[in-house]
Amino acid sequence: MAKSRRLTNCSRVIRHAWHFYYALVSVVKVLCGSLGIACLTP
C-alpha cells in the first residue's frame, strides 16, 4: 500500500511539473511575441 501511494504522489508531482512547464512556455511565447512586435514597429 505504501508503495502504490508513493507512486501516486510521484505521478501527481510529475503532472504538476508538466503543467508548470507548459504555463512557463506559454508566458515565454507571449513575452517573445510582444517583444518581437515592439521591435518590428518603427
TrEMBL record:
This is DUF3265 domain-containing protein. It comes from the Bacteria. It comes from Vibrio diabolicus. Keywords: Membrane, Transmembrane, Transmembrane helix. The chain crosses the membrane at residues 20-38.
